[in-house]
Design brief:
The chain has 443 residues and is mainly α. The chain is built from 22 helices and no strands. It has a domain at 378-443. It has helices at residues 4-7, 13-48, 52-64, 68-80, 88-99, 104-116, 124-136, 140-152, 160-172, 176-188, 196-208, 212-224, 232-244, 248-260, 268-280, 284-296, 304-315, 320-334, 339-364, 380-390, 404-417, 427-442.
């Protein structure tokens, strides 16, 4: 075995000088390691200050050495074009490396990118694999999206029973959209017999979480007396809640109650107000109904030009029977308009259509993730490794693999820090490590 004292030709002061040099070198390595650890958090701080280029450079260093939390963040910076030119293909490369180590947010965003074919050829099968993986790892959003896939038969054979299972799992984690969709399956009897009482209970849960669609559907159950005694007054109250949140169908339903005088005194002015709000959002029923009020001067000044515009817009809606009626109305009015009025109508229709198309493009854009703190990635092993590294117990790659090196580091921290929780991957162990990290930050 190589021995410094027997192989070194130096004696006395020379030997001391060599030892000093070696110790200085080791100290330098330790300092470099400490700086490396600090750098990761420097990147997070730089990102939060809006210094994206600085954050990118630091995280890229970590990403290249295999740290999955940095790989995800580099992908997110490329995806957003923050601190670097936007490049979805490069983002996919880094997301894929993180997804390969079970980072759920990376799996989700890859599923969305592949589904749209943004960076490569559209690949629904691979997208579904990523979605399944994230769902099985407990991601509420992935569970909900998988439920939607089975609910609508998107990329899989339509199966309402399976959709119910995934909605139920996401709902158990408090995802409001899943709670709402679960309610609709019970209301419509899809995947299970119709059960309006159960649907109502789920709708109430979603409504308490702020779902305007749930509020509207509760109103619909009361209006029609489904699972509850018919009660127009209560229906109006729920429709009003949804309408005030800006839900078009809720606004249309509230307008209809005022139009018919159900649950409230008949009031054409209020009906026109809410029909107009819903019509502007593209609700076909509201467009036709508002057109009728305008054509007859009910609740608003009579305006045949504006009425014709709304009838023409309703013609392009999804309900064919309603479209036919609106078409008849528009033709009847058009025969009474002069040329300049017809031009004004067409200009108004073109403007509305262009604005609606632009809004549809905005609404259809993929939600691009932002860089996340390690703990927010949802991989507990990665969180343990990062905490052990910054506390000086782990010098390996932050790769999400709980192997012998990570286990040894965890056990060492357990002994030296006097932890009360067993050295294993758990929320409790992470919490104790976080507390030590916070305490050292105050010193």
């Amino acid at each position: 075995m190589w021995n410094l004292l027997t192989t070194c030709p130096l004696r006395g002061a020379g030997l001391l000088s060599l030892l000093v040099i070696l110790c200085s070198g080791l100290a330098g390595i330790a300092q470099a390691q400490d700086k490396l650890l600090l750098d990761y958090f420097d990147a997070q701080s730089a990102y939060e200050r809006g210094e994206h280029e600085a954050a990118f450079k630091i995280w890229l260093k970590f990403a290249r050495r295999g740290d999955v939390d940095a790989q995800f963040n580099v992908g997110a910076l490329y995806d957003n074009g923050w601190g670097v030119e936007r490049d979805v293909e490069k983002a996919v490369k880094w997301y894929a490396l993180a997804a390969g180590r079970n980072v759920v947010p990376a799996e989700l965003v890859l599923a969305h990118i592949l589904k749209r074919g943004e960076a490569t050829v559209r690949d629904d099968d691979q997208a579904l694999q990523y979605l399944r993986s994230a769902a099985h790892r407990g991601s509420a959003l992935a569970q909900f999206e998988l439920g939607v896939a089975y609910d609508r038969g998107i990329g899989v054979t339509q199966n309402y029973a399976t959709a119910t299972i995934w909605y139920d799992r996401a709902a158990a984690q408090g995802l409001t959209e899943a709670v709402f969709n679960l309610a609709t399956l019970f209301e419509e009897g899809l995947g299970a017999p119709k059960d309006h009482a159960t649907a109502l209970a789920w709708y109430h849960q979603a409504a308490r979480a702020g779902s305007a669609r749930a509020e509207n559907n509760i109103g619909n159950l009361y209006e029609k007396g489904l699972g509850v005694p018919q009660n127009y007054k209560l229906a109006v109250g729920w429709y009003r809640k949804a309408a005030k949140r800006g839900l078009a169908i809720g606004q249309n339903n509230l307008a209809t109650m005022y139009h018919l005088g159900h649950g409230v005194p008949r009031d054409f002015k209020e009906a026109a107000r809410w029909y107009q709000a819903a019509a502007k959002q593209g609700d076909q029923n509201a467009q036709n109904s508002f057109g009728l009020l305008l054509a007859n001067g009910l609740g608003v000044d009579r305006d045949l030009v504006a009425a014709t515009k709304w009838f023409l817009l309703a013609v392009s809606g999804p309900d064919n029977e309603l479209a036919i009626r609106a078409g008849t109305h528009s033709r009847n009015l058009a025969s009474r308009l002069v040329s300049k009025d017809l031009v004004a109508v067409q200009d108004a229709v073109d403007l509305y259509t262009a604005e609606a198309a632009a809004q549809a493009v905005l609404n259809s854009k993929r939600a691009v993730p932002v860089p996340l703190k390690t703990i927010a990635l949802g991989n507990p092993t990665v969180s343990v490794q990062r905490l052990l590294a910054v506390l000086g117990y782990y010098e390996g790659i932050i790769d999400g693999v709980f192997g012998p090196v990570t286990l040894e580091a965890a056990q060492t921290a357990y002994r030296k820090e006097g932890l009360t929780v067993t050295a294993e991957i758990s929320e409790e162990f992470i919490s104790e490590l976080e507390e030590i990290f916070r305490q050292r930050g105050r010193q």
